[in-house]
Every structure is written in structure tokens, then in C-alpha cells.
Amino acid sequence: MSLSANPKSFAYPVLVADIGGTNARFALVDNTDAPTRMCGKTATADHPDISSAIRTAVFPETDIKPRTAIIAVAGPVTGDIIPLTNAAWVIEPLKMIAGLGLEEVIVLNDFEAQALALPGYGGGDIEQVGTGTARQASAKFVLGPGTGLGAAAMIYASETWVPVPGEGGHVELGPVTPEDFELWPHIERYHGRVGAEQLLSGTGLPRLARAVTSYMKAERQFDTPASITMAADDNDPVAVKILEVFARGLGRVAGDFALTVLARGGVYLTGGITPRITRFLTDGGFRAAFEAKAPHEALMAKIPTFIVRHPDPALEGLASFARAPDAFAVDMQGRQWVGAASVA
């Protein structure tokens, strides 16, 4: 059975799960005051489905089996059968309830989970890049260059945090600087356009590399993101230029989103690419592109940007929701399943 009302509490323990194309990560929240208890990471390829992975990775770690599961997946949640974008698993909440003895299953978008983590960050969870001070109870934005370019907003309204996932990674990316205008003719178009994800992601980096290599009239072949970051670590001039352009483009897109939602609570960078290019995010180019939004440069200088250092941001976001669901306005329509016993 699928419900739509936002719950005021969950049946504990709550299992939270971040399901990626390669790995599945699990943690438990034992009650409203309990810390997040990590309990397993496993390769999706090692299991036929999520229930098998939970039995293997989670059940041996707890004496009390979870009663609720909150799961983050990459892609839309459109029905009772949810195929994963980059893995062979199919999530079937009703089968999970029957097979694992759960009372309730909720499935959210992965960047919605990332957004849920934003209000709780502090200390070593984040590293600030550039100027600005985060305002309390103000809109935030999370942007994550990984395999793709994920994006989500966290809006504060009526004393409630409202996560807003979307497909922001597919906005247009155009030239601004003189170098950009020389570089852009070398970029391969996808269906006639240059979208942000086409360059600012793990899948996009090799495309950007081909464009920069052609623009610089160099002889290089960078087929993977790792080959680019490793060459940049060795100060290869072409690889360094690729990541400078990448960071500048990321700053520009981050600034656009900051203006779109007036993210006075900050813009936060996550994703698998981010920790590998830290020096290109902190050398000034990223922040300069972020702030270059005439006539609003003064406003942009006040909006902070952060690198997320938390090792499991999506899990922490789901755990925050599990502990205090009434603090968030999460759309449950078509994304919440409960067993017959729970309804009774």
C-alpha cells in the first residue's frame, strides 16, 4: 500500500541505505537520539537484489532487525517497481516488506538525500572555499559532480526544511571568458547543445579533455577521469588546464543555482570528482567564477561555498530524516509503502 502523508515518527530501528551503481551502503538509526550506526558496504554486483544485500551486510550487525527502511536511489521513483540506472538491481518495496519483515519502506532520490544532510553539517563535515557566511534558516544548494552532475535545493519555509531534487545538472553551459570563446568550438555537442553534465562530471571529463587538447594543439589521450587527475597531480600542463576549465565551469553553474534559489545558507559540493580536484577548487578560479555574476557580485561574495568532507552524506541525510521527520517536508506521494499490519 502506498501512502502520501508525511510521518511524524518512524518505527525504529530505521535502516537507511544509499544505493549507487557500484556500491550499496547501509546504516542504522536506533531511535530519535541515536547516532548514525554504520553497518555495511557491499558491491551491488555481489548480490542479486537489495534484500539479499541487507541480509548479508546488515542483519549480522544488529540484534534487533529494522522495522523501517529509507532508501536513496539514483533516478526517479515512478512506481512499485524501481529499476536502478547504473546497476542490475530492481527495488520492489512490497517484496522487501514481505521478505524482510519490515513495516514500512520509503524510497527517495539520491540528491534529495544529500539535501537532507545540509542543515546538520558542522565542524569537519565541510570545508569552506572563499568568503561568505551561511545564514541560519536560509536556502541551501548541493551540487555533485560524480558519474553525472547531481543537484538539489534545500528550501526553508514555514519553519520547515523542504528538499527539492531535480535535473539541474542538465542546464546549459556557455562561454564567458576570452579563453572560453576560443575553447567552445572544440567541444562536442550532444543533440546540438552543451549541457553542464556533458562537461562537469565523470562521464563529461573525457569530452572536456578532448576539447582542451584540441584547443591547445597538444597530443594527449585522456580516456578516464582518473587519467586526467593523475596527470594533473604530475603537473601535466594539458591536464592542469582541463581541471582549471572544469573548476571554472563548476563555479559558474554553482553561482547560477545560488542566484536561482538565493542560497544564503551556502552552496555545497559533493560527488566523487570533488575530493580529487580540491586544489583546483581552492586556488581561486572556482570562487572567482562563482562570484562573477554582474550586477550581483557583492551579493555573491556573501554567499559561502563548501566542499563536503562527510564520508557518507546521503546516508547522513536519510538518518537526519529518520530521527526527525517532522523537521522536513518530504513528498511521500508514490514513494512510501507500508505493510498491512502497519495500516491496521
From TrEMBL:
Pfam families noted in UniProt: Glucokinase (PF02685)
Residues involved in ATP binding: A17, D18, I19, G20, G21, T22
InterPro entries given in the database record: ATPase_NBD, Bacterial_glucokinase, Glucokinase
EC number(s) given by UniProt: 2.7.1.2
Keywords from the UniProt entry: ATP-binding, Cytoplasm, Glycolysis, Kinase, Nucleotide-binding, Transferase
Enzyme type, top EC level: transferase
Location of the protein in the cell: Cytoplasm
Domain of life: Bacteria
Molecular function terms from GO: glucokinase activity
Chief location of this protein within or outside the cell: cytoplasm
Catalytic reaction annotation: D-glucose + ATP = D-glucose 6-phosphate + ADP + H(+)
Entries under PANTHER family matching the protein: GLUCOKINASE
Similarity-based family: Belongs to the bacterial glucokinase family.
Protein name: Glucokinase
Lineage: Bacteria, Pseudomonadati, Pseudomonadota, Alphaproteobacteria, Hyphomicrobiales
Protein's gene: glk
